[in-house]
Amino acid sequence: MSIGVHNIGQGCVTCLDHDEHYILTFPNGYGRQVNSLIDIFIFNALSILTVPWIELGGECSINCSKTGYNASIVFHTKPFYGGKKHRITAEIFSPNDKKPFCSIEGEWNGVMYAKYSTGENAVFIDTKKMPTIKKKVRKLEDQDDFESRCLWKDVTYNLK
């Protein structure tokens, strides 16, 4: 049993300190709770379920028009038999290059490792060691009609 959300469109992120503007696409999202093999073979006569989990899957991209750097990212879904959850691979490209200067693999919610074209290997990021930074969001009355928090304010209110 699972539910999937196919994300369409793109997001924009601006790094004010560097005057850089990034356009990115999003992975698909899945809520998973797969029945055990026993359930599958005896047609749900028993109800033995795994612990539910959230999973990301699919391909994404990140592009910076100012610098020309771009990245291609793949969120791998867990295979039915074996395998690991939350896997990610990515390649980062210099402007106009067809060959990546950096390849990344690991877990999107854990540790990711980088392998550079120079042969150097390093920890790219350890998300468990990252500090939590509080979002800075404009007040609702200062947002445009179609900004996310303004658009969904009634739904958010009623969910609370």
From TrEMBL:
Enumerate the SUPFAM superfamilies for this protein.
Oxysterol-binding protein-like
**Which InterPro entries does this UniProt record tie to the protein?**
OSBP_sf (IPR037239), Oxysterol-bd (IPR000648)
Species name for this entry? Answer: Rhagologus leucostigma
Return the GO cellular component terms, semicolon-separated: cytosol; Golgi apparatus; membrane
UniProt-listed Gene3D superfamilies = 2.40.160.120
Its Gene Ontology molecular function terms?
A: sterol binding
Q: What is this protein called?
A: OSBL9 protein
